Amino acid sequence: MAKRGKKYRALIASYDIKASYGVDDALGILKKAQFKFDQTVELHFNLGVDPKHSDQMVRGSVTLPHGTGRKIRVLAFCKDNMIQTAMDSGADFAGGTELVQKISEGWLEFDAVVATPDMMAVLGKVAKVLGPRGLMPSPKAGTVSPNIVQVIKELKAGKIQYRVDKGANVHAPVGKLSFGVEQLRDNILSVIDSVKKNKPQTSKGIYIKSLTLAATMTPSVRLDMALTR
Asked: pTM of this prediction?
């Protein structure tokens, strides 16, 4: 077991790790963690789904009311006549087959990928690179659209994507620890609402089994499951 630092041990001793807390109280606990950088706050779900079945995959996107607090590097795949429009809309990179080649060679200096529908056949060549990293554009995630201008602007404004992993978990950033409690609360509730709305029809029993909140360098704090009802 990894040895934890003094700050981590002090924080975990300051609250009951078996208890569940409301959003504001949980954030109050996390805000006690003082480090030299602005930590990212993440919401962690454990879901009652079986990701091995395609009809129980949980995947979606949501625009955080107060953004993520970090700069998102957006890569846009589009035809030549749309490249300048994409760049003017805020994309950090835009292009076609030449960018597929760069990715094939190991280039991954971006955080989100959007594409027009007519570029998806080209992107198939790097699906095995982008897919496992959660970067492959898809209509369900809202990152494949003929109107990539709007998609780019939404991503820059704080739209996030989430996807259930093999362990039936969903991890979603909800802002920075320096955000106000009200800002983080709004972001957290927006993500919870989105995940609830994306419940697969084939999911039976308890859908959200556990819900925790943590920052980059902190232990997790259990959230009151009443938030999921």
From this structure: 0.84
Mean pLDDT of the region 172-182:
96
Rounded to an integer, what distance in angstroms lies between the CA atom of residue 3 and that of residue 66? 35
pLDDT at residue number 48: 96
The Cα–Cα gap between 121 and 23 comes to: 43
Report the C-alpha gap between 67 and 5 in whole angstroms. Answer: 30
Residue 26 lies in a domain: no
For the chain, how are helix, strand and coil distributed in percent, rounded to 5? 35, 20, 40
Q: Which of 157, 178, 212 is the last residue of a domain?
A: 157
Identify the CATH number of the domain in which residue 113 sits.
3.40.50.790
Question: Which residue has tokens 């897919």?
Answer: 131
User: Cα 111 to chain center, whole Å?
Assistant: 10
- Interval 205-221 mean pLDDT: 95
**What does the pLDDT average to over 180-203?**
96
C-beta separation of 204 from 53 below 8 A: no
Asked whether residue 131 is assigned to any structural domain, the reply reads yes
CATH of the domain at 220: 3.30.190.20
Tokens 């594409």 belong to residue:
115
pLDDT band at 1 (very low <50, low <70, confident <90, very high): very low
Residue 213 bridge partners (DSSP): 43, 221
CA distances from 208 to 51, 64, 141, 166, 202 (A): 14, 20, 20, 15, 14
Same domain for 153 and 164?
no
